[in-house]
Amino acid sequence: MNDLRLGVIGLGVRGDLADLAHRPGAGSRVVACCDVDPKALSGVSDRFGPGVETTTDHRELLSAGLDGVLVLTPDHTHERIALDFLSGRVPVFLEKPMAITTAGCDRLLAAAQAAGTRLYVGHNMRHMPVVKAMRRLIDAGAIGQVKAIWCRHFVGHGGDFYFKDWHADRRNTTGLLLQKGAHDLDVIHWLAGGYSRLVTGMGGLVVYGDIQSRRDRTGERMTDWLAPELNWPPLQQRDLNPVVDVEDLSMMQMRLDNGVFASYQQCHFTPDYWRNYTVIGTEGRIENFGDAGDVTIKIWNRRSDYHADADDSVQLQAAPGSHGGADPRLIEEFLDFVRRGGTTVTSPVAAREAVAAGYAATQSLRSGGLPVEIPPPDPAVAAYFDNGQR
Ligand SMILES: NC(=O)c1ccc[n+]([C@@H]2O[C@H](COP(=O)([O-])OP(=O)(O)OC[C@H]3O[C@@H](n4cnc5c(N)ncnc54)[C@H](O)[C@@H]3O)[C@@H](O)[C@H]2O)c1
């Protein structure tokens, strides 16, 4: 088996995925790297071998004979870069969120179908043990038929990560409800078995907007400045991004196309960093405690007052690899998809629906909480992806 020849666009924090995909002699190797910042390219021959091609313009890699490309750049660049490779017939791994607007996602789906080029969107949470276990339990009938899902997302490192670089500027992300929420909105849809069609949102910039200290960190990486232990409580944060116009507290409610109701809350100034899902069905409720390391999932089926031990529980041990062991599985699935095609655990249509929910909720919260309807994707396009892009 010849190694797949892979290109990588964007060698920032998520550049770690390229290391997972670089398996010379074992099926895939990184042969080309692109980053607009020449500094990011300086160590690539040590990392991927002396022959690796480098460029600051991704379009130069359209004719590099690549079997696939990993697009790991900031959110607002996803659409342009992925469209170029899809029309150039190079299979694409695209980081989440797929794009920063619903229309942008629809353009990507249409382009992939028109060119017949394989598109994979990196929703790694579908490979997280906690999410997989909750879905397995729900599918096995542990709580009856799902009726409600509530997700609380405590983004404890919010001020350290997202308010110190490009994420804080809505031109790059639309907002954090979409940019961070795309993960959880996809999980909510996956656990519910449906997609949001009506949403409302509320929220604002309630803490970090009060901090005047600003610094432009262009060319730096989050890992260069991350020191959460120095920055507590949150108003101690210094050197935020020059533009901070995204919300640090947001809440949304959803009505799904299968009658499930859901809510999602995201806060960027909590002391702890994790997500908690509560799923309520016709015969019980399930909830996770911890998400990436050691995790307990509890299931309540009998009536009681407060009952911390629950009626049943499942313990999960920390798996090796980043994001609770999800990232190695994500890359494994992408490489297999490049070779064989077909359906995958992640789904480009679901990725579009996660963005659509986050985008509509952001519109809602910026217009006083008015309900916003979400148009479904073109059914012919959705069917093409549901059938494994054949
Ligand atoms: N799935 C996950 O768990 C997860 C986690 C973190 C980030 N992400 C996503 O990964 C993407 C990258 O995030 P990050 O934290 O690595 O960002 P980062 O800022 O650390 O790195 C981005 C890199 O892309 C480069 N870049 C910017 N524009 C470019 C362009 N047009 N062409 C080539 N290179 C370009 C930058 O110079 C930088 O080196 C984002 O879309 C983010 O939402 C996903």
Strand % is 15-25%
Report the order of strands and helices. Answer: EHEHEEHEHEHEHHHHEHEEEEEEHHEH
Q: How many angstroms does the end-to-end distance come to?
A: 23 Å
Q: Assign an overall shape.
A: globular
Mean pLDDT: 97
What are the defining features of this structure?
390 residues; nine-stranded mixed beta sheet; 23% strand; 30% helix; single chain
Structure overview:
The chain is an alpha/beta fold and 390 residues long. The protein has a domain at 126-326: Dihydrodipicolinate Reductase, domain 2. 30% of the residues lie in helices and 23% in strands. It contains 13 helices and 15 strands. Helix 3 (75-87) runs parallel beside helix 4 (102-115) and helix 9 packs across helix 12. It is globular, with a radius of gyration of 21 Å. The mean pLDDT is 97. Bound molecules: nicotinamide-adenine-dinucleotide. Nicotinamide-adenine-dinucleotide binds next to helix 3.
